[in-house]
Amino acid sequence: MLNVVIIGSGNVAQHLISTFQNAANVTLVQAYARQEEKLLHLLPADKITNSFAGIKEADIYIISVTDDAIAGVSAQLPFENRLVVHTSGSVSLEQLDPKNRRGVFYPLQTFSKNKAVHFTTVPLCLESESESDYPLLEQLAKEVSHSVYSISSEQRKSLHVAAVFVSNFANHMYTLGNDICTENNIPFEILKPLIQETANKIESLPPLQAQTGPAVRNDRQTIAKHLDFLTDGNKKAIYTLLTQSIQNSNGQKL
Ligand SMILES: NC(=O)c1ccc[n+]([C@@H]2O[C@H](COP(=O)([O-])OP(=O)(O)OC[C@H]3O[C@@H](n4cnc5c(N)ncnc54)[C@H](OP(=O)(O)O)[C@@H]3O)[C@@H](O)[C@H]2O)c1
Question: Which pLDDT score is estimated for 253?
């Protein structure tokens, strides 16, 4: 049985608490929250502490607070030489206080408190400062996910940038598409099957091969008509930049 303490009460901490509570070979010993009431819907009061001094003994401590608070929180832990990991995509392992054995338990998914996620499908990116700690971290990860990777801090940095492109930027494209629909009295729902199919297609084709549209076809008249249609300078600039990027990726010129 693996004993785990979660430190934090936000989006990721709450998903981890629910997930570990349902895992067969994991005991969620306790959770730390600055404001205990934030976790009362998930845990009995005696399993929540708002004092670092009150944190109980465990095999693994998972700090899931805002990126900027990770170093400070790790420094306040009143014990040494225990395995302490954080869940950030963009904070290096060295940001954790060296008085404890350090590691990373980064779930590569987008989490919001009130949106359920099938945790078994969430890729878990693991790193441990000491090789001897890796098996324990891996054992914990495999209890809750079928998708476990060893990823260094350097790799994690690039992975996080890649994630911004495929998730945050793709979602922003949905926002712009939604704007255009709204401005023209078209329901955004009409685009949802296209969005789904675009995402599904990369299960069977590399993204470069899956690309369709006027840019990759180099349909200059259609591109010119679209640019003419777009009156908003921001959308026009994004359209032009992405068209160029698609054509560069596919070895063509605008
Ligand atoms: N959300 C995602 O999609 C996602 C995905 C992968 C990884 N991550 C990473 O997971 C971590 C947590 O992200 P999140 O989205 O769960 O954040 P969040 O919902 O904003 O929650 C942040 C938590 O940090 C606590 N906190 C902030 N400063 C603190 C301090 N000085 N001392 C103690 N607690 C403090 C907050 O406490 P209060 O509520 O009291 O303010 C809150 O519980 C981050 O490192 C993030 O990069 C997030």
Answer: 53
Q: Whose CA is nearest to atom 28 of ligand 1?
A: 69
Q: Which residues pair with 48 in a beta bridge?
A: 31
Question: If you count them, how many residues does the chain have?
Answer: 254
How many beta carbons lie within 10 A of that of residue 195, not counting itself?
14
64 lines ligand 1 (CB under 6 A): yes
Residue 107 Cα: closest atom of ligand 1: 6
Q: Yes or no: say if 40 and 95 are a contact pair by the CB < 8 Å rule.
A: no
Q: How far is CA 88 from the centre of its chain?
A: 8
- The token duo for 205 is 């084709």
pLDDT in tens, 70-88: 999 999 999 999 999 999 9
Residue minimizing CA distance to atom 31 of ligand 1:
69
> Would you say the pTM of this structure is higher than 0.85?
yes
